TrEMBL record:
Superkingdom of origin organism: Bacteria
The species this protein was found in: Sinomonas humi
Protein name in UniProt: Beta-lactamase-related domain-containing protein
InterPro entries, alphabetized: AmpC-like, Beta-lactam-related, Beta-lactam/transpept-like
Residue stretches making up the Beta-lactamase-related domain: 4-256
PANTHER family to which the protein is assigned, alphabetical: D-ALANYL-D-ALANINE CARBOXYPEPTIDASE, D-ALANYL-D-ALANINE-CARBOXYPEPTIDASE/ENDOPEPTIDASE AMPH
Length: 339
């Protein structure tokens, strides 16, 4: 493949049809050809499903968007010492200012990648770091927001977060190849992902570190990511009022509530997109505001070093993500006749 990518899979769905393709190989070891229906870690696309699970709590009147979570989420107050009340909306919109649970020096560390991190431990890991009042209200993405939301969901539903997502989203939509569980590496229909450390290639496909994570634990196919977005924006997962709040967001930032606002396109409501890049595959997905036009793509880049070893690797991945969004957005607009 051009640029040295290991594999890429893409699926586009519109009212009159569907198109999918796969390029490259599933594994650099087996060299088996990638297939359009292969599964891959979709990273922070997971946050959009988590946002739906949270908004369903709102629909069920278990909590309000502007209610504080300080005394609801176990350990939130005691571990994090927030500067004031923190609302559900602020966590969903990444405007809470919550400190990160991942030290900057750990990014891309193979040893860190190989360690499981329970939600409760992640919250503790964020404790002890400053949470200034000045950071509240300003958009700053950090996955700890969604770690806290995962704990909120399992506290109010009284069952593990992954079980809630399975019962409320994955199973009802028939997403048979979507899961928050650990990847079974014996299965063949998996796109393997890689990084390098000190010049040595490392297979990072095993998601032991992120399985079950409300921020980046999801494994799926591009067809099922598209199916989920179509259901979400088609009004089949949350109430119209919650969907409107999700699209509105927490402020002027392009990030709304678990989804990013895209450019005006197929519909008067514009478009929305979600992305996933946690150092494995790079995933981008775009939907029209009515869910009738969707496009999703995952790309496994050539093995790149982790951030501590080469900060330029992050810039390379960000550039790839922007190019993917541009391509998918143009594709959707061409299908619906937008200029």
């Amino acid at each position: 493949m051009d640029g040295g990518a290991v594999s890429a899979v893409v699926e586009v769905i519109w009212p009159d049809g569907q198109w999918s393709r796969a390029y490259g190989v599933r594994s650099l070891d087996t060299k088996d050809a990638a297939q359009a229906g292969d599964r891959v870690s979709v990273g922070t696309v997971t946050e959009t499903l988590t946002a739906v699970a949270v908004l369903r709590l709102v629909d069920d009147r278990l909590i309000g968007l502007d209610d504080a979570v300080n005394t609801v989420i176990p350990g939130f107050e005691a571990e994090l010492h927030p500067p004031g009340p923190v609302t559900v909306r602020e966590l969903l919109g990444q405007t809470s200012g919550i400190p990160s649970h991942i030290p900057a020096t750990n990014g891309g560390d193979p040893a860190a990648v190989a360690q499981p991190r329970p939600l409760e431990q992640a919250l503790k890991d964020a404790g002890g770091r400053p949470w200034p009042a000045s950071s509240v209200g300003t958009y700053q993405w950090d996955e700890t927001n969604y770690v806290a939301l995962g704990l909120l969901v399992q506290t109010l539903r009284k069952k593990p977060f992954a079980d809630v997502v399975e019962e409320e989203i994955i199973a009802p939509l028939g997403l048979a190849h979507t899961s928050l569980t650990r990847i079974d590496l014996s299965q063949k229909d998996i796109l393997h992902t890689y990084m390098t450390a000190h010049g040595q290639r490392i297979d990072t496909t095993d998601n032991i570190d992120t399985a079950g994570s409300p921020s980046e634990g999801l494994t799926s196919t591009m067809g099922e990511v598209s199916t989920f977005l179509a259901a979400l924006f088609g009004g089949r997962l949350i109430s119209p009022s919650s969907l409107a709040q999700m699209e509105k967001g927490a402020g002027p930032a392009p990030y709304a509530l678990g989804i990013a606002k895209g450019p005006r396109g197929c519909t008067a409501g514009g478009s929305f997109h979600t992305a996933g890049d946690q150092g494995r595959a790079i995933t981008a997905a775009v939907s029209s505001s009515d869910g009738r036009y969707t496009a999703a793509m995952a790309l496994v880049p050539q093995p790149l070093p982790g951030t501590p070893e080469d900060p330029n690797a992050d810039r390379q991945r960000n550039t790839i993500t922007e190019q993917m969004f541009s391509t998918l957005g143009e594709t959707i607009n061409s299908l619906c006749g937008s200029p």
